[in-house]
Amino acid sequence: MPLAALRRAARETVSGLPREFWWLWTSTLVNRLGAFVATFMALYLTLGRGYSASFAGLVASLYGLGGVISSIGSGVMTDRLGRRPTLLVAQSSTAVSVAVLGFMRDPVAIAAVAFLVGMASNASRPAVQAMMADIVRPEDRVRAFSLNYWAINLGFAISSAAAGFIAEFSYLAGFLIEAGMTMVCAIVVFAKLPESRPTRIGKEAVEEVGLGTVLRDGRYMSVVGLSFLVALVFQQGSVGLPVAMGKAGFTPADYGMAIAVNGVLIVALQIPVTRVIQKRDPRRLLVFSSLLAGYGFGLTAFAGSVGIFALTVCVWTLAEIVNAPTQTGLVVRLSPVHGRGRYQGMYTMSWSVAGLVAPVMSGFVIDRLGAAWLWGLCAVVGTGAAAGYGALMRRLPAEGTATGPAMAVAEAEAGAA
């Protein structure tokens, strides 16, 4: 592609987005650049502290459980207190709890603080996504969510590489660096991001947007359930794949080489692929990405070398690139303006629950039936999710509208105005 064309494509990708979005994007990138603890927690507990692998697994589960619980709570805070206060509380709490975790020595204290870190670190997600939906025009949201997802993966790729070097020097340094960088994110939010929560119009109508509203929204909760299925498949890249490769005689370095393709492709392709998909039918994109994810992992059953494993990673990574911004955009599209925090919290929870279920599922299937059954199950789950998206979204509402209880709230707000 000519240089002029590349420049034009880059300009079109980043143009038209408000300044507040870029400060939020910067906060996301800095946060992920400092995300060391989740990367080396298992090594820290087993090699650095001498605990068993079982204890490391327990701590990881508590960390994930904290994220499940905070997803709903932070969604409510986002709607009631505002996006900015929720972000400040979440990021400040993350910084403090991560720093404290680095000094814990007692196993009970480590487990308890890890649970708090999981709660705090996950609490900012509904607020970030709700704020992004507030400040970005509907036609630009898929592009904005894609850019944010790109920042997440770029930051994670860099922090993952740096984590190993930092761990060799000092595990405590990793905890303190993450705490410091997370506090920088809180400062950015405090100094540069104004509150974006839409003005409340019609008090009684706004009060109707509760968790019950979300739970009664059948179409939306079905989308959350389908999101859980897709997340369950994607989680196998970090929980099922390394176990299966290990049992097949491959080394951790082999797994590292195969999974590195995921981060490289996301950083390289997320933005150009988004330029292709942002104006396309989200139903078809979600059906396509679900099938691609399921059968991408399904192909792993036939992998016998690192190169083939890497090729299967390429397949399901493309599904991830398409699915992530499309799914997040759909969540906003189905959410009432004054209930975005709660709706985003429920969506975030689907991924957190998948993070808890996936390790148990993969371990059980691999131990009892073999890895080939796990990859076949991924294909079945992906197919089921694709069928579900196809059935649920035949009459997708127009941009800016909602359905079910959410639609009733929107109509009440309009009447109050």
Number of domains: 2
The end-to-end span amounts to 51 Å
Amount of helix: over 70%
Number of strands: 0
Radius of gyration: 21 Å
Spans of 5+ residues with little confidence (pLDDT < 50)? 400-404, 406-417
Q: What's the CATH architecture of the largest domain?
A: Up-down Bundle
| Main beta sheet | none
**Shape estimate:** globular
Count of alpha and pi helical runs: 19
Give me the CATH fold name of the largest domain: Growth Hormone, Chain: A
Average pLDDT, all residues: 83
How does the helix and strand content classify structurally?
A: mainly alpha
CATH superfamily of the largest domain: MFS general substrate transporter like domains
Q: How would you spell out the order of helices and strands?
A: HHHHHHHHHHHHHHHHHHH
- Please report which band the strand proportion falls in: under 5%, 5-15%, 15-25%, 25-35%, 35-45% or over 45%: under 5%
CATH class descriptor of the largest domain: Mainly Alpha
Supply database-style keywords.
single chain; Growth Hormone, Chain: A; 81% helix; mainly alpha; disordered C terminus; 2 domains; 0% strand; globular; 417 residues
